[in-house]
Amino acid sequence: MDETEAKLGTQSIPEVSDSLFGTIDIILLTLLVGGVSWYLLNRHKKTTPIANGRSYSIQPTAMSLQTSSDNSFIKKLQSSGRSLVVFYGSQTGTAEEFAGRLAKEGVRYRMKGMVADPEECDMEELVNLKSIPNSLAVFCLATYGEGDPTDNAMEFYEWLQNGDADLTGLNYAMFGLGNKTYEHYNEVAIYVDKRLEDLGATRVFDLGLGDDDANIEDDFITWKDKFWPAVCEHFGIESTGEDISMRQYRLQEFDEIPERVFYGEMARLHSLKNQRPPYDAKNPYLSKIKVNRELHKTGDRSCMHIEFDIEGSKMRYDAGDHLAVYPVNNSELVEKIGKLCGKDLNTVFTLINTDEESSKKHPFPCPCTYRTALTHYLDITQNPRTHVLKELSEYCSDPVEKEKLKLMSSTKPEGKALYQKWIIEDNRNIVHILEDMPSCQPALDHLLVEYTTPTGRLNKGVATTWLKLKVPKDGEEPPTVPIFIRKSQFRLPTKPQTPIIMIGPGTGLAPFRGFIQERNNSKEEGKPVGDTILYFGCRKRAEDFIYEEELLEYEKNGLLKLHLAFSRDQAHKVYVSHLLEKEGDEVWKVIGDNNGHLYICGDAKGMASDVRNVILKIIQEKGQMTEQQAQAYLKKMETQKRMSADVWS
Ligand SMILES: Cc1cc2nc3c(=O)[nH]c(=O)nc-3n(C[C@H](O)[C@H](O)[C@H](O)COP(=O)(O)O)c2cc1C
Question: Which residues span the membrane (predicted)?
């Protein structure tokens, strides 16, 4: 597809208030639905990053500007008298945050720690870490897609897979970040933990696994509580009992506005004003919005169709790619924080890492005003994690409020229960906490550091709420938003005559709209086009059957075969998996007899696994295979890229 076609791209964004997709809204939000179009954040999908190695670059990595060229982590450890290095594999910032907390806590055990990004380190040096006495490497690694590592851990992962380094003498521990609703739960951490052992390294403490579908913060602090005593025992050290109150970043406020001030850029100063290709996560393109319309016909849920104009941008969008959007935080929320902390939001400041060895000099692009930081660089809508509550407690003058915050940040069962109730279930963000605890008056710069989300992971609704207002009006300049494109492995077969089955209920339809447009194009060019079969489902035909007219037209002109499931239009709920069950012969004809492709897009939690199970059953029955053979058949389809899933929960 060329650029002009790509500008037809649309973006479907699920309803804010009852979004199925919760905190990965941002990711959802940026899934550019096919023909061009849909999504965003958090947040996530089924592609195999092996081929392009970057398929999950949600993140701006605003800090890479400040990256040091020296990638010897051993030299850094030695020159600063440290023995603990905590590596992170992170896409949306959680693993990076956990790594930072672990490194900081090392001081308590006379193990000064350093956080390290594997992408910026020569990981082969792990072989020599033992040259530092009592040294320890900890890994916090997230899993994505089909058991894939994050972008920044990819090279390290491949090095482990392909190499045979002798890691004898290397002490290590691993905490994995994953989500149980995905088929490949925490596979990266599980694999790396085992692989390090196989290569001769010594596991100092049991592998910890965090489940982001439940409470990953709880999993982490519970693991960490046992991890440190195990480390002490292993190295024969004792806790100093010191609490680590050392600040990672030093604040400097400016009386006069300095020459270089950031206003929401992700890396290069003025990059939003002086736009220069190539555009990517660090250098987003300010795209005009040409169309922004509601797709649901009735009901109080919403699904937006947005068309972004990328003409002239030199960006390439292929059907199946994701479109990422950088939203901004609600200004009322921003102003409230300024008021609650008693700060003039126009003040320009910078935060400077007190650790001179760190490759990350600032937590986000600095200097900037407090308003810019709160608006563009921080996720002020998330539920704060326990360490933030602990630090907030220091700023409470009322002992009752202080104790409550301290309790919630402890690992005591009643503390965890209170955190779950008061923070998670009641869904309190920082503004709610400050409003509900009037004696708590934190220093704003302190709050900024705690709330930094290097990857722009946003809570429900930030992007959707913001995009809803970006509607082009006649006679006015169209609204613009900063975007970039994330390449995907979710791809049509190269030959249009290869038959395909697409399973995409709800907003899972997004990439398939692009696929269908592409196939229609081939048909109009007179090329032979194979079976193009779509399974779509939604609640009610009259309510949320998105792109109904368009799909029916493709069906009428003979391109598309449609199977529709309207779950609430009859007494018994019917989903796409039920339709597939009935169509075993057709499915097998495509994937068994004719080497066709099968795609799944949408909800990972229920839909994707139900569909997968039905497909397995069909392979077993129609292909006359045992369960094991059917599993192997599906695996082979995956390796051959004949079966792809782009799913999220
Ligand atoms: C699009 C997407 C795909 C994901 N795929 C998986 C997966 O295959 N297996 C898994 O265990 N967790 C998966 N997760 C969950 C993440 O690993 C988990 O949320 C983790 O905490 C993210 O860490 P990070 O913020 O450091 O990137 C996925 C999350 C998203 C958003």
Answer: 20-41
Distance 473 CA to ligand 1 centre (A): 38
Q: What is the DSSP string of 422-490?
A: IIIITT--HHHHHHH-TTB---HHHHHHHHB-TT----TTHHHHHHHT----TTSPPPEEEEEEE--S-
Same domain for 47 and 76? no
For ligand 1, whether the C-beta of 185 sits within 6 Å is: yes
Q: What is the pLDDT of residues 266-304, one digit of tens each?
A: 999 999 999 999 999 889 999 999 999 999 999 989 999
Which CATH number does the domain housing residue 467 bear? 2.40.30.10
- Model confidence over 144-199: pLDDT tens digits? 987 899 989 999 999 999 999 999 999 999 999 999 988 899 999 999 999 999 99
Are 45 and 83 within one domain? no
Taking residues 14-38, report their average pLDDT.
27
Say if 555 falls within a structural domain.
yes
Across the chain, mean pLDDT equals 86
Neighbours of 361 (CB within 10 A): 18
Specify the residue with its C-alpha closest to ligand 1, atom 7.
144
- The residue segments making up the domain with residue 595 are 500-648
Look at 50-54, 199-203, 353-357 and tell me which has the smallest mean pLDDT: 50-54
Q: Are residues 231 and 83 in the same domain?
A: yes
**Would the ipTM clear 0.90, i.e. be above it?**
yes
Residue nearest to atom 12 of ligand 1 (CA): 178
* Per-residue pLDDT band at 6 (split at 50, 70, 90): very low
Burial 566-581 (b: 16+ CB within 10 A, else e): bbebeeeeebbbbbbb
Nearest atom of ligand 1 to the alpha carbon of 24: 31
Residues 625 and 525 in one domain: yes
pTM for the structure as a whole? 0.81
Same domain assignment for residues 603 and 627 = yes
CB 186 within 8 A of CB 145: no
Are 544 and 590 in the same domain? yes
How many Å apart are CA 117 and CA 73, to the nearest integer?
Answer: 10
Nearest CA to ligand 1 atom 17: 178
Q: Would you say 36 and 431 are in contact if contact means Cβ atoms under 8 Å apart?
A: no
**Gap from CA of 219 to ligand 1 centroid (Å):** 15
Confidence of residue 451 (pLDDT cuts 50, 70, 90): low
Can you list the alpha helix ranges (DSSP code H) found in 199-290?
216-235
| Ligand 1 touching residue 93 (CB < 6 A) | yes
Tell me the CA–centroid distance for residue 22 and ligand 1, in Å.
13
